[in-house]
Amino acid sequence: EAGVVQSPRYKIIEKKQPVAFWCNPISGHNTLYWYRQNLGQGPELLIRYENEEAVDDSQLPKDRFSAERLKGVDSTLKIQPAELGDSAVYLCASSSGEAGVSDEQYFGPGTRLTVT
Amino acid sequence: KQEVTQIPAALSVPEGENLVLNCSFTDSAIYNLQWFRQDPGKGLTSLLLIQSSQREQTSGRLNASLDKSSGRSTLYIAASQPGDSATYLCAVVDMDSSYKLIFGSGTRLLVRP
Q1: Among residues 41-100 of chain B, which lie with CB inside 8 Å of chain A?
Q2: I need a surface site. Which of A8, B25, B48, B66 has the fewest CB within 10 A?
Q3: Partner B contacted by A105 (CB < 8 A)
């Protein structure tokens, strides 16, 4: 079974430029998460989707961040414009939704963003 | 607000040693606790998931215990190997955050040959 797929793996951009990250969850997983991990820290949730609906986006900086999950499968996270403080690893995770809140979450390899 | 702490932040041991990594959380009202491994530049690999009703889980040389009342979990690694070198993260899903994993900052483990 294929795991969570993310692309690109690495991205270097100048500040004020836009950037987008893509995630393909494990097949059949209804719940999709985007986390951000700063250097030396644990990941923090940005947004959670149940199918195509964003059910928790309370931690998403909405002035510059946006996300979508069309058709309830793949998801895209966008930053526009990027700031120096956005440099981090952006992780996508998915879970089946079968056990509800007790589901195990499976993570992708992440996208390492560097803003110069 | 739930806070997860991992001590020590870094650990260096000789190969073959048994070791324990510690994780503590401030609010005992959790649904589950998950231990992850993260290799440099890589994503997170799930190691063990302990539901709130469970006391421990085992996988190979790994054993994780959970004491909800005291807000503690330990990850025991038997007969450590250089390939175990990585950062180990614990995370909880609590009844306030619902679905959101709240992570500690991790323990960076180095197993010396």
Answers
A1: 41-46, 49, 51-52, 89, 91, 93, 98-100
A2: A8
A3: yes
Look at the block and give the residue holding tokens 């690999």: B45
Q: Residue B34: helix, strand or coil by DSSP?
A: strand
Residue B85's φ and ψ, nearest 5 degrees, are -65, 120
pLDDT in tens, A29-41: 999 999 999 998 9
C-alpha angle with apex A90: A86 to A96, nearest 5 degrees? 145
Pair B87, B103: CB distance under 8 Å: no
Using CA atoms, how far apart are residues B108 and B10, in angstroms rounded to an integer? Answer: 4
Between chains, do B104 and A42 touch, taking CB under 8 Å as contact?
Answer: yes
What is the per-residue pLDDT for A101? 66
Between CA B66 and CA B55 the distance in angstroms is 5
pLDDT(A99) > 70: no
Beta strands in chain A (DSSP E): 5-7, 10-13, 19-24, 31-37, 44-50, 53-56, 65-68, 75-79, 88-95, 106-107, 111-115
3-class DSSP assignment, residue B110: strand
> What is the 3 state secondary structure string of B37-82?
EECCCCCEEEEEEEECCCCEEEECCEEEEEECCCCEEEEEECCCCH
pLDDT digits (tens, 9 = 90+) for A20-64: 999 999 999 999 999 999 998 999 999 999 999 998 898 899 999
**pLDDT band at residue A103, thresholds of 50, 70 and 90?**
confident
Paired with B6 in beta bridges are B23
